[in-house]
Amino acid sequence: MDNNNTINDLINRNNELRKQLTKKNLAYYENVLIYIRTAGLFYDGLEIEMVLMQILQDILAAQVAGETAEEYLGKKPQNAANEIIENLGKGCYKESLKLFGFVFGISSFFSLISQISTANNQINLLTLLVNGLLSFVIVVTLFHFIHKSIYTKSFSQNKIRKYGLLWILSVIILCLYTFLPITFPNILTITMTNSVMIMLNSFIIFTSLLYTFFRKSEKLLLKASLPFIIISNLLGILSRVEATHFFMAQQNGKLFAALATMAGFIWFSFYSFKESKKE
């Protein structure tokens, strides 16, 4: 069994065992869990999950003995968590590169979909590159923000302020993705024919379906994003085939495309939120 499977097994086991905690102990432990998991992207993931499992088992044992998590681990869990983080081993170079490639690849993939889902027959490679790099920076920044906010009283005790800042960050991120590509020079641009674009959209639909079927370990991301992927690429096909391209260029066609895309986003948000509640 490789490390990824072991990590997934530990996470699933952790999710199940947490159900045995009292409400107070659960809140205490989940703060520790999030604080340690978001300490950085380049720590050894397997070691983190093993440490979190050990802490959880200790709290469960204390709970059986009639102690709360706070009584067992102390009123300042941040200090204990910081000591744990300081002793964590760094992930190997290969794993760090794999993580960067995953974030970069996901971002570039969706940037590609957004470019080929319209009637425009150009692909801007510079946009794919910059969006991929930007996504990695954003992920690191969000991890840092979440990590710092866990035990910061102004955030942990004021949900309005916390979610307000997250909303502002989300708006900034959306604006960066929307308007930054407009400023890019028209270089590294590939122009393709309608036939090639139709084949590319069809290929993405086919491979996404296959990938979702065979990669069950990544079912959350795949099932959440699959409808959006299929809808976007179908719109890309409809905007180019002779029977429907005229309709798609009209007001009704644009409205249809907007509603279909919105449906994909709603599904992604709903499914991700529903599954995250289980975690």
Automatic annotation (TrEMBL):
<keyword id="KW-1133">Transmembrane helix</keyword>
<protein>
    <recommendedName>
        <fullName>DUF1129 family protein</fullName>
    </recommendedName>
</protein>
<keyword id="KW-0472">Membrane</keyword>
<feature type="transmembrane region" description="Helical">
    <location>
        <begin position="255"/>
        <end position="273"/>
    </location>
</feature>
<keyword id="KW-0812">Transmembrane</keyword>
<feature type="transmembrane region" description="Helical">
    <location>
        <begin position="164"/>
        <end position="184"/>
    </location>
</feature>
<feature type="transmembrane region" description="Helical">
    <location>
        <begin position="226"/>
        <end position="249"/>
    </location>
</feature>
<feature type="transmembrane region" description="Helical">
    <location>
        <begin position="99"/>
        <end position="117"/>
    </location>
</feature>
<feature type="transmembrane region" description="Helical">
    <location>
        <begin position="123"/>
        <end position="143"/>
    </location>
</feature>
<feature type="transmembrane region" description="Helical">
    <location>
        <begin position="196"/>
        <end position="214"/>
    </location>
</feature>
